Amino acid sequence: MELKEMINQYDPDNQFNVLIESFKQVEYAWNLKIDISSIDTKKIKNIVLSGLGGSAIGGDLLQNFLRNELKFPYAVNRNYELPLYANEETLVIASSYSGNTEETLSAAHEAIEKKCQVICITTGGKLLDFANKHKFPVGILQKGFQPRFALWVNFFTLLNIIQTLKLVPEQNDNVKKIIDLFKRKGIEFSQSKNEALSLAENLVGYIPLVYAVSEYTSALGTRLKGQFNENSKLHAFFGLLPELDHNEILGWDTFNPNQINLKLINIIDEDYHPQVKKRYEITSEVIKKTGCEIINLQSREGSWKERLVDLIYLGDWISYYLAVIRKIDPTTIDNINYLKERL
Please, which residues bridge with residue 48 across strands? Predict the structure, then answer.
């Protein structure tokens, strides 16, 4: 069956087009005007983004994206409660695409009790009602996406807020370059033959294991793992250097490729610390001896920020194609819906 036929058959919600038009999410978010006049930036000593799933990954990405620019302690909270230290010096950003994520709503209500300053990011639901009731600033996201396919409108709305608060240097040039990047790569990855499709074909029948780097590409590792889970309906795992060289590397002592169908994906970047680059080389040598195949992913874009989002975008396409060529609808979330009903 031709790729176009498989897409028509197994992607009834046309996520293919959503991926191609990712640049439009960036444009929407960056043109969004958010009234943050009620926020006293002089009081901010730390930032907590509270969210789950597709609404939390944007928070993870912000940490990597602004690793050399955000000077405030910053944490992504994926639970019902806020960290104990949250107080009137904490800016809480409550992020829920649907507006009805129960963990995020719980944390947002606790933020009031702790006298935190609050900003909300959502399409509507209970979180928008909450923001309006308490007159909190709110970034209204575009509706109509699966939360994981709304990463770019979520992330760039978050970045818009952080810039508007003047907590980081101006990001307009970076955003313009990323919009151009997505336009170019959207055309490239939607062709009948492309890098993302080839990588997906190479992963059929295997469990992906992603190795990324703490503080640099950790959000990319998290994202890839989650996209393989949600889009491709596969188990997937990730580890972070240099930490994994202090424990996980020993798991390869007894690895047998005849018992576990696994392929390793290394996330490589020129900005890594020299010792981390050495660790990748030596760790890969150890793993190759087991017979496990290693796939190195490295972006050739000009800047750190472009390379980071370039590989996330590539990963989204890989996980999408891996679903379609395995005759799976990438949009279905049956087990998640079942869990929500039971809860």
Answer: 75, 92
Question: Which residues, in sequence order, are CB contacts of 5 under 8 Å at separation 6+?
Answer: none
Q: Is 273 a catalytic residue?
A: no
Dist. CA 226–CA 16, nearest whole Å? 18
Range(s) for CATH 3.40.50.10490 in the chain? 11-177, 193-325
Q: What angle do CA 315, 138, 16 make, to 5 degrees?
A: 25
- CATH for 193-325 is 3.40.50.10490
Per-residue pLDDT band for 244 (boundaries 50, 70, 90) equals: very high
pLDDT at 1 over 80: no
DSSP string, 241-276: ETGGGGTGGGGGGG--TTT--EEEEEEE-TTS-HHH
Distance CA 88, CA 104 (A): 19
Strand 90-96 relative to strand 117-122, pairing:
parallel
Identify whether the C-beta of residue 323 lies closer than 8 Å to the C-beta of residue 231.
yes
Q: Which of 115, 235, 288, 340 is catalytic?
A: 340
Question: What fold, for 11-177?
Answer: Rossmann fold (3.40.50)
Strands (DSSP E) found in the chain? 46-50, 74-77, 90-96, 117-122, 138-140, 207-213, 237-241, 262-268, 294-298
- Is 33 an active-site residue? no
**What SS3 class is residue 76?**
strand
Active site residue 306: no
pLDDT of 282 over the 90 cut: yes
Q: What percent of the chain has pLDDT over 90?
A: 92
User: What pLDDT digit, counting tens, does each position of 102-111 carry?
Assistant: 999 999 999 9
Residues in the chain: 343
Q: Which member of 230, 233, 263, 305 is catalytic?
A: 230
| Candidate list 33, 246, 285, 341, residue with the active-site label | 246
pLDDT of residue 335: 84
The per-residue pLDDT for range 26-60, each reduced to its tens digit, is 999 999 999 999 999 999 999 999 999 889 999 99
Number of helical H runs and strand E runs in the chain:
13, 9
Residue 167: per-residue pLDDT: 96
